[in-house]
Sequence to fold (676 residues):
Amino acid sequence: MANPQILADNYKKILTILNNIIRNDDNSPLIDYPVLIGSRAAKWHIFSFREPNDWDLMATPLQTTLFINKVKESNATFKNIKLIYYPGGGLKLAGEYIDQYTADKKLISFDIELVSEKVDLRNMKSIFEDNSEDNMKVDNMQDDDELNFDVFEDNSKKSNAEDSEDNMKNEINRIEFERFNDVHPKMSALMILEFCHNIEDKTMLPLLANFLCIVAPLKILEALKTSQIYWPADFHKNISDLHLLRDYNKDKVSIIQPLCSPQRDELIELILETRKPGAHINLNISNDDFLENEDNLFVQKCISREDLYELVKYGDHPIYQGLRDDKSKTLIKKSLFEKLDYQTKIKCAKEEAMVIALERYLIPMISKDQENSYKLALVRICTTLTKGWFRQFAIDNYPQLSNLDRDLLSIAHNIIEKIPIKQKKPDVILHDLETQAIFESIRPYTKTISSFDKIRDYDDFYTVIKRTGINITSPINSDVSVTAIITNMHRSCYEDYLSASWTASVVILPTNDLKISSEDEDEDSDEDKDDDDSDSFDMDDVNISFKDPLKIHPYQESCSGKFSNLDTKHIFVLGIRAYWRVGMSVEEIWEPINIKVKSADFVASLLEIPDLTGDLLFKYVLDCLKPTLIDVEETPLENWVNKLKSNGTIPIEPNQHLWYYAWNYKLNRKNLNNLY
Fold:
């Protein structure tokens, strides 16, 4: 999968690219104003809607240039701005601007999806198409094992550092996009602009005098939100938004009144169909196969599904039994389901959710919270575990399904008592005897840090954070100790498309330095900055949405993938990003893994423990804290490590922690580069 490319992060260069696109576009205006979508548009219609974070727009290239020029003409200035190309997806302008003359200096975040009727912004022509030598360089770069985010402008700067400004302009001018053929399916964004052509509702972007945008009507916002609802990430936010957009009040909904999708215009239905994910779940399989094929969660097959249905049934028999032609298959018939009264339909869906909660969460003891397990099961029904009309029924009637009315914990407890449960075996890492001996000599001087001040996240609804740590006192000098802290953060967002990021950091430093770092409110001195990672950036350069009281977990910039203010204490930093873009089809894109490493030799030497190297100290920290990424397991990193193993770059044996494999590989590459 091709990676997103930052075509430019300077407004002048962005204008050059956009003006080149405009020359190939139709001169007649597609629509008079940009279209505001997302939570900002919903808030305009519904006062009680949640507070939006940014301004999501759909705009033509010409309107986008007018927006940029308007910012430059006003008292506002761009804090950051990037034109990003998503191969097969399109162009997006993202960034922030600020009124530099006001006291609060509030940042205005924007995200503009560019739309053209004549130019196919999904397909950029190769800028090397006339140069076979450059083409060869690009191919070689793509085959390299190094994982680097594709940044067009940065690569140009690196390869043409001594070129003149005129040559740089030539590079920008070479960016060109394909034109649409005479006959082609319309993109959903283009259909949205056409639908909003005569909409009279308008609002003005902040700080920009007379820059109006059309507010997308509720029927468009409802369709966009419906297309997002099939993704598990941010499901609870999205389902709440969806039902609010459909003008249903949970407190006033009758328990006997069925809820359903609204009647949509033909064009709205077409927009929805082009943006929502395709059906990929096969229910025409046996009950056992249904469990075997679902490997995202550890499904405990210690009791049959039929027996679980018997334990949660509302009547004499589980409702689903009367809805199947083939009793051995999971598939139930829509025609039989529709003959049920509404309350029986609700009970049928709830029975299914309770069975899933038991078999996937409570019985295997993945969770001891029955309410949360039931909600997770409902999320699975509404997203990835079912499809078609049954999934749609669950989504439409979610307010009626969300109340758990059975004691699932007691059911799970009784099953666990009667049937021995096989726990999932952890990945065993066996160290050699010499390493084990060193580890055992350190353990008496190691204390687990029991608690940390909470990282304040301004969007904590979408963020999960875990932090663990240990303190190691020198057996030689009790006044000397080092602290190791591992921070795991998972963030997800879904406005125009689902995106998710995972960052992890392993910080090892003298304990006194940690106290100084957390208490110091002043900016780093110039001397401190000399030790910073040259590929990192200052935290003041971005609108950070979380605040770490220890000031040790780096922020990863969304476009370039770079981390903030890395220095010698950041022994290992990992960043993984992914997004799922919905157009004519669903496109899943995992950006390259970004890894930064430092040697731990110096901090290890402070402990004065014989034979304790930085390598062993890092292994020891991983052995004590056993970190894993949140909600993604280790699959992206594991795939990369397995590739390195398969081509002989790193040894297969002995088995090591995945983070150690990555750290050791990158550190060795770094040391090798420093020799030349």
About this structure: Residues 433-516+546-634 form one domain. The two ends are 33 Å apart (CA to CA). The mean pLDDT is 77.
